Amino acid sequence: MGAWRFRPQGALGTAAGEVEEPARNIPRAINQVLLRILIFYVGAIGVMLIIWPWDQVGTEGSPFVLMLVGLGIGGAATLLNIVVLTAALSVANVMTYSNARVLYDLAASGQAPRFLAHTNAHGVPVRALLLNSGFVAVAVLLNVLLPGKALVILIPVVVGAELITWSIIALSHLRFRAREGAGAFKTPLSPITNYLCLAYFALIYFLMTQDPASHAGAIALPLWFCGLLIVGSLLGRVRR
Question: Residue 87 needs a FRET pair 20 to 30 A away by CA distance; which of 8, 33, 64, 124 works?
Fold first, then answer.
């Protein structure tokens, strides 16, 4: 895996295991991520709200397109589509790396089928990449079979999976700090920030239960979590 190394910011967590001098580079990368979120996300929304009336955002079309048209920029929709497609390709690149990396690590530690731990001569986990690509192909197929509906179906399910993932990360961080202490990676306001994150995730799940379009994800989330607990318990007994 050492030869297969690039550092997309979105894959910071999964790339942390390959970073040289982590005590110095990981905090620096985290600070850069926060700065970029403030500039490209919060900053972009702030500029949009300054230029376009806030009470008309999302009512007549894409707010960014409306803003660009209002500024007299021709071909605003085309320009925005180029930006969106570029961002989507960037996310796909990050997730392809992250998913293959996670599958490889799980297989190497005995928590996934061993054949996924195979790498080629350049250290690339080809089998994990192919499996990840298969799931991408399924998503594309769903979009072909259910045009205009696949995204609506998948988004609540993905949000539910993210809530499980990040809740476990927050809980793991609490337990890790209780056992190991802060060490070289100090978190401001910890452990209060962990509890704030968990409360925010609970709020998101509550909102999912109130939105008819998200009911599928709200129902799937506890079922999926219980399934993970059952499988994990069974695997633990088999190993013992």
Answer: 124
Region 14-20: what's the mean pLDDT?
66
- Structure confidence by residue, pLDDT tens digits, 129-172: 898 888 888 888 888 888 777 777 778 878 888 888 889 888 98
Q: What is the pTM of this model?
A: 0.64
DSSP state of 146: S
CA distance 161 to 99: 14
Listed in sequence order, the residues at least 6 apart from 25 whose beta carbon sits closer than 8 Å to its beta carbon are 19
Q: How far is CA 188 from CA 166, 182, 192, in A?
A: 18, 10, 9
* Interatomic CA distance for residues 92 and 51, integer angstroms: 31
Question: What is residue 37's three-state secondary structure?
Answer: helix
DSSP 193: H
Rg of the chain on CA atoms, in Å: 21
Q: Which of 39, 124, 20 is nearest to 7 (CA)?
A: 20
Distance separating alpha carbons of residues 37 and 7, to the nearest angstrom:
17
Max distance between CA atoms of the chain, in angstroms, equals: 68
